[in-house]
Amino acid sequence: MKRRAVWGVILITGGLWAQGCAAPEPSQDLLAPTEAQMKIRSVQTRVFDIADRQQAMRGVITALQDLGFIVERANEPLGLVTAARFAEPNYYDVVGVTVTVRQETPERMMIRANAIFNNKPIEDPKVYQNFFATLERSLFINTNKDNTGEQSTPRQ
Amino acid sequence: MRAWSLTSIALLCSIQLAGCITPTEPAELFQLTAESLQNRAMQTRLFETSHEKELLSASAAVLQDLGFQVEESVLDVGFLRATKERSAREYGQDIGRFFLFVLSLGKFIMPVDLHQKIAATLVARPIDPKGSSREIRIMFYRVVWKGDGQADRQYLPPGEQKMEMIRDPVLYQQFFAKLSKATFLEAFTL
User: Any residues with CB less than 8 A from the CB of A60 and at least 6 apart, and which?
Assistant: First the structure.
């Protein structure tokens, strides 16, 4: 009886050991586009009827500042704005956002925002809705409703 | 006796709860609040000039006067970022550290603020289509690094960070007063 118990213990510990040894295999399609990625991209992107890229960038910067973000970097030729803010009231979480402004057609601007919370990407559509609502206000123009959704995703 | 134990339990619970701050949802951080308007008014001034370049270089000069070093500048979108590093030592904290050390019988050494980086980001932008007047918005913030400490036998390593926006209106008033002197222009509030 005692011997059986010992064997049982050995087997269980052995099983636990073996489980710890199995290294997690990196999945093959780690970099392949998935449906979820396409979805998040359409949430992050919006097209605005605005012809001047510099004006659009200034609008983005104003919107970010209104939201209390600290503009860290701006690159006019690439249409890139990077900003961050502390997740007040706590002192150790940071929310970062990168906004890119690209000319889609001569009179349309495509604006994409990527937000991260500490080092985790934010995938909550509400975050982007709130951001674009503020951006719309600061640009004082109406978005082209027909072009939100599928068509507003960037071209490959 | 029972009342005493109840009080001590209540005290303990309240101490435990005081440590918890409910984290803000990211979605809330992307929404305008009543405070954001207030902050905007504090951080923004209007200048009646069409020369954005001069306004920006004057701003850079004022920041330099205040001991900042310009780290990033993009003229096309009227953007400047400057920082300065200073010691963050405060006597009050050292005194608190000493008393905590004595009261805990030498078991707890509180980490104190050691070093800080104060930064400013500034954006100039035209506010009317003709571009006859400009708006300057500046935001100050700081990051503080703590020194090391000890809790019982566990060593608390140095380098813990604390980040905060600086929301003292006097600082902003001082900056804009200096800027309007440097540009010979009046700074209008929103």
Answer: A81, A99, A101, A111, A135, A138
Average pLDDT, rounded, for chain B: 85
Start-to-end CA span in chain B (Å)? 62
* Number of helical H runs and strand E runs in chain A: 4, 6
Residues B14-27: tens digit of each pLDDT: 555 555 556 667 77
* Average model confidence (pLDDT) across chain A: 80
The answer, as to whether pTM is greater than 0.80, is no
**Is the CB of B107 inside 8 Å of chain A's CB atoms?**
no
The chain B residue lying nearest A80, using CA atoms, is: B77
Looking at the complex, report in whole angstroms how far the Cα of residue B167 sits from the nearest Cα belonging to chain A. 11
Helix (H) or strand (E) holding B4: helix B2-18
Chain segment B78-92, per-residue pLDDT in tens: 999 999 998 888 888
3-state secondary structure of A93: coil
The helix (H) or strand (E) run that includes residue B155 is strand B154-156
**B27/A70 CB distance under 8 A:** no
Decide: B28 and B170 in contact? Cβ < 8 Å: no
N residues, chain B = 190
pLDDT attached to residue B155: 86
Query: How far, rounded to the nearest angstrom, does the alpha carbon of residue A121 sit from its chain's CA centroid?
Result: 5
Cβ within 8 Å of residue B136, ≥6 positions away: B44, B45, B46, B47, B55, B59, B122, B123, B124, B176, B179, B187
A74–B contact, CB cutoff 8 A: yes
The answer to whether residues B49 and B133 touch, using CB atoms and an 8 Å cutoff, is yes
